[in-house]
TrEMBL record:
Residues 12-72 form the HTH tetR-type domain. PROSITE patterns: HTH_TETR_2. It holds the Pfam family TetR_C_33. The keyword Transmembrane does not apply. InterPro entries: Homeodomain-like_sf (IPR009057), HTH-type_TetR-like_transc_reg (IPR050109), HTH_TetR (IPR001647), MT1864/Rv1816-like_C (IPR025996), Tet_transcr_reg_TetR-rel_C_sf (IPR036271). Residues 35-54 bind DNA. Keywords: DNA-binding, Transcription, Transcription regulation. The lineage of its organism: Bacteria, Pseudomonadati, Bacteroidota, Sphingobacteriia, Sphingobacteriales. This is HTH tetR-type domain-containing protein.
Length: 199
């Protein structure tokens, strides 16, 4: 039994090492630099061993995408839980979203297809819905006592997401402004949308 547990633990460690090595390669050379051969070299294994854990590069990208959405959801929950008022929760959550995008730049890029061709992977991951659900629920709470239709909530969510994701994307492709300007735009947008929800 102990031997089986040890084998499982070693397999999980190797799997994590593959993912960590993948992110390291991307951080150093961008998404175009990622290959199964480079991953194998980074962890000092042979390429066939990598294929025992992941069928191909897309499978690694899928797992990194999943990891990114789980981490983002955790950051959003932490931000929400620091406040009681829905307006403060929304502001904190969107600021946490912004911080995540730049602290975990490579994960954000693969999650949302910014500077990386990630196709439609995120759409098939159940984890990709969690960040949206967290924010959606707070928007609904902010609308109380009048809860809008699903379409009204959807419009508010996508208004938030469009502005914030757009600003992040602009900055990731090096067309953004100073941090001070970005923070001002971010806070102005969040405050304005919250005000429109509260009516």
């Amino acid at each position: 039994m102990a031997s089986k547990d040890r084998i499982l633990r070693l397999k999980e460690e190797t799997r994590c090492n593959i993912l960590d090595a993948s992110l390291k390669i991307v951080k150093e050379g961008g998404w175009d630099a990622l290959s199964m051969r480079k991953i194998a070299d980074e962890i000092e294994y042979t390429a066939p061993i990598i294929y025992e854990y992941f069928a191909n590069k897309d499978a690694i990208l899928m797992e990194l995408t999943r990891k990114g959405f789980l981490l983002l959801a955790k950051k959003l929950e932490e931000a929400r839980n620091r406040h009681r008022a829905p307006a403060k929760q929304l502001e904190a959550m969107w600021l946490a979203y912004w911080d995540f995008a730049f602290a975990e730049r490579e994960l954000y890029q693969v999650m949302y297809g910014v500077r990386v061709s990630c196709c439609e992977m995120a759409k098939i991951l159940p984890e990709s819905e969690r960040p949206m659900d967290l924010i959606w629920d707070v928007i609904v709470e902010l609308m109380l006592p009048h809860v809008g239709t699903e379409e009204e909530v959807c419009i508010k969510y996508y208004t938030f997401w469009s502005v914030i994701h757009g600003l992040i994307s602009i900055n990731m492709v090096n067309r953004g402004n100073t941090d001070e300007t970005n923070q001002e735009v971010l806070k102005t947008a969040i405050t304005g949308i919250i005000r429109s929800i509260k009516g």
